[in-house]
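REQUEST ID: PR-0412
SUBMITTED BY: lab tech R.K.
PRIORITY: routine
TASK: structure prediction, single protein chain
INPUT:
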Amino acid sequence: MSIQPNIFDFAESQRQADIGITISAENNAVRLAEAREIARELSQGGRVEVDADMVQRVMYARHNGRDVLGNAAGGIFRGREWSFAGYSKSTRIQSHGNRLCKWTYIGGTK
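STATUS: complete
OUTPUT:
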C-alpha cells in the first residue's frame, strides 16, 4: 500500500487559491484595473449589487468577445471597498451555474 499525500486540506486549498489569484492579478494588472473600474461603475455608487458575471459581460463587449481576465477575475472584489452581499448563480455557459458572490460597493481606497 502506497502512502498518498493529504489531498484534503481546506487551509492549503485556500492558500493555493490566493497564490493563484495573486499571480494572475500581477500578470493581468491592467485588465484587472479595468475590471475593477467597471465593477465600480456597475455598482452605481453602491446602489446595485455586482458579481463577476456582470463585469465579464462588459469586458467581453469591450474586447470583442475575448476572455481577457481569466483567473484574475478572482481579484476583482478584493479589498476594503467591497462588502459581501450574498450569492447568485452564474449565467455563463462555461461556468455551469456555479455560485457567485455578489458585492456591494462601500467605497474607500482603491
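NOTES: The chain has a mean pLDDT of 89.
REVIEWED BY: pending
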